From TrEMBL:
NCBIfam families: dnaX_nterm, PRK05563.1. One of its GO terms (molecular function) is ATP binding. The gene is dnaX. It is an enzyme of class 2 (transferase). It holds the Pfam family DNAX_ATPase_lid. The lineage of its organism: Bacteria, Bacillati, Bacillota, Bacilli, Bacillales. Residues 371-398 form a coiled coil. This is DNA-directed DNA polymerase. CDD domains: AAA, HLD_clamp_pol_III_gamma_tau. Gene3D superfamilies: 1.10.8.60, 1.20.272.10, P-loop containing nucleotide triphosphate hydrolases (3.40.50.300). InterPro entries: AAA+_ATPase (IPR003593), ClpA/B (IPR001270), DNA_pol3_clamp-load_cplx_C (IPR008921), DNA_pol_III_gamma-3 (IPR022754), DNA_pol_III_sug/sutau_N (IPR012763), DNA_Rep/Repair_Clamp_Loader (IPR050238), HLD_clamp_pol_III_gamma_tau (IPR045085), P-loop_NTPase (IPR027417). Residues 36-177 form the AAA+ ATPase domain. One of its GO terms (cellular component) is DNA polymerase III complex. Its EC number is 2.7.7.7.
Length: 593
């Protein structure tokens, strides 16, 4: 029966392992010095050799030539472990046997000595899938197993293991394999199989494998089946879903030439062919990174990941400044993050293409390359220069005639920024002044008379925010709500549920929908005082002639001043008022607790 490459070419000795030098050296030294321990934890991404290393280590432990740093693969023990018939090496899949009952069965058999080997080795794969009760059952045995037992735990997610398990093991972290290691191993497999191949094809597969040997060999197996007699770059691109170098060149030239139509057409073509947009974004980042490497280190072709023929891409690299390449990579990286939270990845990449075209701040031509719009850019610059020359000429003429330069166009008055309360709440001073300018006694009395009913209709948690709040001014469209404390004012203004409940209560009780303007007490007093001063509503002194012509209407001014004074006065507690009537104001002291 045909065996897949990743099974047929599984490493059988430490020397055949790809990468993981730190793991290999540590285990081999421990074997030679006979300093192996009772429990190991192998963690790392999928396809990096965890289970293969566990089997090689088990063979080296039980080899007839032990202590040795390499299994012989010839003795009965080595051959039995290789073909899975050795009863002293037990492989256990925690993903399908996660219950505590399976672990208890292992614990019961641990005390029995191995049948014909030096050690009984338990290899527990995907150990993070065990239940909490299974981990608890394993704890004591894992810490103090019999001398003839070795546990090897393998996992892709070590963060899911309890710290009590990790602390009882020697931990080895397997790293993703480099593209060079993947490429070398695929070359060995193809040479051994007698299958011809193209060098760029292996680079494409190595890049798509993302550090996993099993993924690389699986895609290589698929490429061999697809191509038949050999492995070509086109076959590898088709199998892995990657993009050929020429398409990358066309996209980069369209972006460099500000040809939005060509760039978007290429993207549409790739999407219609079934290319993954997220994968395309990753590959574009790597491609522009290669162009940067070519500019910075032109004599280092081994550093390139996508570009296999640097000479053919050198003109493109030279035509793109480093600043634009950095901008391209930055925009694509941001887009890659945004795609994670959206179902419309294509739209994000289209927007990224347009941003990349505009990366240097020049106008964009959506219908053709930059050369088509070069004449328009020059004309715009000439118009700007002409306007500047005209401005300088006008200023010179005015100075010669003795006219100040700003006489005809006085600078606009600087707009005073809206004040902020101490907790950062933005006070809407303009709206408050508008309410004061159009305030009526009827509206504020209507709101105040229904205020207790409005609070009773609201939820207790919402009404609690209004314990120290008071309506102080109202027009026919809005009213000002004053808060004693700025923090309560900010909490109320930023709570949409509270605003909806208050608006509903006003409509139901007062019979009119009012907009609410929030303001802390200290800001309200300042705005009110400024409004009185700016509108000439101060009380006239005794020496002033109240009947002089030109004064504002006396009756209207008095009414507005009385209203504002009433709005600014604190609302007195009725109990306090009654006490003052009985005992006099001098004898009554009010304490706020």
């Amino acid at each position: 029966m045909y065996q897949a490459f990743y099974r047929a070419y599984r490493p059988q000795t430490f020397g055949e392992m790809s990468g993981q030098q730190h793991v290999r050296r540590t285990l081999q030294n421990a074997l030679l010095q006979d300093k192996t321990t009772h429990a190991y934890l192998f963690s790392g991404p999928r396809g990096t050799g965890k289970t293969s290393t566990a089997k090689i280590f088990a063979k080296a432990l039980n080899c007839v030539k032990a202590p040795t740093d390499e299994p012989c693969n010839e003795c009965d023990s080595c051959r039995g472990i290789t073909d899975g018939s050795d009863t002293d090496v037990i492989e256990f899949d925690a993903a399908s046997n996660s219950r505590v009952e399976e672990i208890r069965e292992i614990i019961e058999k641990v005390r029995f000595a191995p049948s014909h080997s030096r050690f009984k080795v338990y290899i527990i794969d995907e150990v993070h899938m065990l239940s909490n009760s299974a981990f608890n059952a394993l704890l004591k045995t894992l810490e103090e197993p019999p001398a003839h037992v070795v546990f090897i735990l393998a996992t892709t997610e070590p963060h899911k293991l309890p710290p009590t398990i990790i602390s009882r093991c020697q931990r080895f972290d397997f790293k993703p394999l480099s593209r060079a290691d993947l490429k070398d191993r695929m070359e060995q497999v193809l040479d051994d199989s007698g299958i011809p191949y193209e060098e760029p094809a292996l680079k494409v597969i190595a890049q798509a494998a993302a550090g996993g040997m099993r993924d690389a060999l699986s895609m290589l197996d698929q490429a061999v089946s697809f191509g038949g007699d050999d492995v070509t770059a086109d076959d590898a691109v088709m199998v892995t879903g990657s993009i050929g170098e020429e398409l990358f060149r066309e996209i980069a030239e369209a972006l460099s030439g500000k040809d939005a139509a060509a760039a978007l057409s290429l993207l549409e073509r790739l999407v219609s062919e079934g290319k993954d947009v997220v994968r395309l974004t990753e590959d574009l980042i790597t491609f522009f990174r290669d162009l940067l490497v070519m500019k910075a280190a032109p004599g280092m072709p081994d550093l390139l990941e996508i570009i296999s023929e640097p000479d053919g891409f050198m003109p493109l690299s030279e035509s793109l400044p480093e600043g634009r390449l950095y901008a391209f990579i930055s925009i694509l990286s941001e887009t890659q993050q945004e795609m994670r939270f959206s179902n419309h990845a294509k739209v994000y990449l289209e927007a990224a293409f347009l941003r990349m075209i505009q990366a240097d701040g020049t106008p964009v031509s959506a219908a053709g390359p930059a050369s088509a719009g070069a004449g328009g850019e020059v004309e715009e610059l000439q118009r700007q220069v002409s306007r500047l020359e005209q401005t300088v000429s006008d200023l010179t003429r005015r100075l010669q005639q003795g006219i100040p330069a700003a006489a005809e166009s006085p600078s606009p008055e600087r707009r005073r920024p809206a004040p902020k309360s101490k907790n950062g709440f933005q006070v809407q001073e303009g709206r408050i002044r508008d309410v004061l300018a159009n305030a009526t006694k009827e509206d504020i009395r209507s709101i105040k008379s229904n205020w207790a009913s409005i609070l009773s209709d609201m939820q207790k948690s919402q009404a609690a925010l209004l314990n120290d709040a008071e309506p102080v001014a109202a027009s026919d469209k809005a009213f000002v709500l004053k808060f004693k404390y700025a923090i309560h004012c900010g909490m109320a203004a930023s709570n949409p549920e509270f605003l909806a409940s208050l608006s509903q209560g006003l409509s139901a009780r007062a019979g009119k929908a009012y907009d609410v303007v929030f303001v802390p007490e200290e800001d309200w007093l300042k705005i009110r005082e400024a409004f009185i001063r700016e509108n000439g509503l101060q009380k006239p002194s005794s020496g002033e002639n109240r009947q002089e012509p030109g004064n504002p209407d006396e009756e209207a001014a008095e009414e507005a001043l009385a209203f504002l004074e009433e709005a600014g006065a604190p609302v007195q507690d009725p109990l306090v008022g009654e006490a003052e009537k009985l005992f006099g104001k001098e004898a009554v002291n009010v304490y706020d607790d």
